[in-house]
Amino acid sequence: MREITKITCIGAGYVGGPTMSVIAHKNPNIKITVVDLNSARIAAWNDENLANLPVYEPGLDEIVRDARHRNLFFDTDVERAIDEADMIFISVNTPTKTYGKGKGQAADLKYIELCARQIAAVAKDDKIVVEKSTLPVRTAAALKNILDNTGNGVNFHVLSNPEFLAEGTAVSDLLNPDRVLIGGDDEVAIEALVKIYRSWVPEERILTTNIWSSELSKLVANAFLAQRVSSINAISELCEVTGANVDEVSRAIGYDSRIGSKFLKASVGFGGSCFQKDILNLVYIARTYNLHTVADYWEQVILMNDHQKSRFAEKIIQTMYNTVNGKRIAFLGWAFKKDTNDTRESAAIYVADYLMDEEAQVVVYDPKVSDNQIYSDLVSLGTRSLEEIKRLVTIVNDPYDAVGDAHAVAILTEWDEFKTYNWNKIKGEMKKPAFVFDGRKLLNNIEMNKLGFEYYAIGE
Ligand code: UDX
Ligand code: ADP
Fold first, then answer.
1. Centroid of ligand 2 to alpha carbon of 14 (angstroms)
2. Which of 54, 284, 318, 423 gives 20 to 30 Å between its CA and that of 220?
3. 169-186 core/surface letters (b: 16 or more CB in 10 A; e: else)
4. In whole angstroms, how far apart are CA 183 and each of 109, 188, 190, 208, 442?
5. Which residues fall within 8 angstroms of residue 450, CB to CB, at 6 or more apart?
6. What torsion do the CA atoms of 362, 368, 371, 372 make, to the nearest 10 degrees?
7. How far apart (Å, rounded) are the C-alpha atoms in residues 442 and 439?
8. How far is the CA of 337 from the centre of ligand 2 (A)?
9. pLDDT tens-place string over residues 99-112
10. Which residues contact 418 (CB under 8 A, 6 or more apart)?
11. Per-residue pLDDT tens digits for 425-434
């Protein structure tokens, strides 16, 4: 197999963009082209003003500044990029199906299949095709089948190389990964990909497995992480009725080295593009093989998460004398976690929907999420027209505009800046009693009570 000198990545999203930027940064001798059908997204990746990159990740601007126009290129010409590449990463979106068989559970693989067909049609020489998107187990086989049966007689080697980066810490996760996982059945192709990662990842952290183990491990890693959040969230409800404090419980159990201290923060519910989708995938696969007890077990992680989101909204309504009709509720945060502008599956969307059902006036402030994104998240729930949403939801660019005259503040994302606000001033500007519902346990209970707030936090 020839030396890898040109890589193409199809899909310039939250995974493809940052991952390829870091690979390019660490492999200056490899030309990397990231392509996307979305020309606005590509234009943003090429924007000279690095503040306009389509993905916000701390430290990403510096990496892009270093590699862009040197060996990192963003382009819309998918065919040319496929033609010239030795190795092609597929990093397109795999949303949950919204139609047909597996609706609401299975991953929609139409974008992956389109990519495979396009690669097969264009390729004139051998290629290594790497699955980067999170996929159901055995997708690689489907991919290989399409490539081999529709191609021009060239050889394709398919590898699975799932991405474990978390948003908000993508750059540090990529620079210093716990592990890199590569699944495949061709030693030469595996070695070609290992070599790229070896430029900066210690050898012992590069794991190679068979392709199915690699695909399944990605789903299982996310399922275990989400399960921890649902587990601690279940305990948060118990804490609220018993007088225990969930942070204290997390700390106490986290000291047990078998349990570990990470990922035990109770919250209004997990969001993000991966957890729910991957568990639904796992559930779907288990059901396909008639493993109903296994499927029910994992499904419960999602049901618990849904419960946590609606429980938070109900708490707001119940505490505010069972009516929020016409009341102004200031949302601090819309992103699914801090340090990202990504809102996919964010708890804020569902809490807002619940409050809108009760005719609340929701005012949203998020430091990184655009107005359009917030409206489009609410429209895509399919419960209301944009006009109706605009009647109930206002978006502001200054947090103090959100809280002025508010009956309540609800903290939905754990942005650090919320801790630094002048809460005394906020109290002065709110309607009384001034309610704060802290879905992230971000603020200090004692201090908030001292300032005169009616303060409620998850799990205490
Ligand atoms: C996750 C996995 O961590 C990552 O390895 C995988 O590649 C993609 O999915 P991500 O969704 O970006 O990453 O963020 P993560 O930090 O895992 O948080 C997911 C959600 O769980 C967020 O909404 C977060 O607020 C919530 N969470 C996380 C908690 O509520 N409590 C915790 O203790 C940890
Ligand atoms: P992820 O979080 O997995 O990176 P995103 O939705 O952020 O998902 O990014 C996926 C990107 O893939 C989108 O920008 C989308 O336009 C792009 N995409 C999907 N299908 C194709 C395709 N056939 N060719 C090129 N780009 C594609």
1. 9
2. 54
3. bbbebbeebeebbbbbee
4. 19, 12, 8, 6, 40
5. none
6. -130
7. 8
8. 21
9. 998 888 888 889 99
10. 332, 333, 399, 411, 442, 443
11. 999 999 999 9
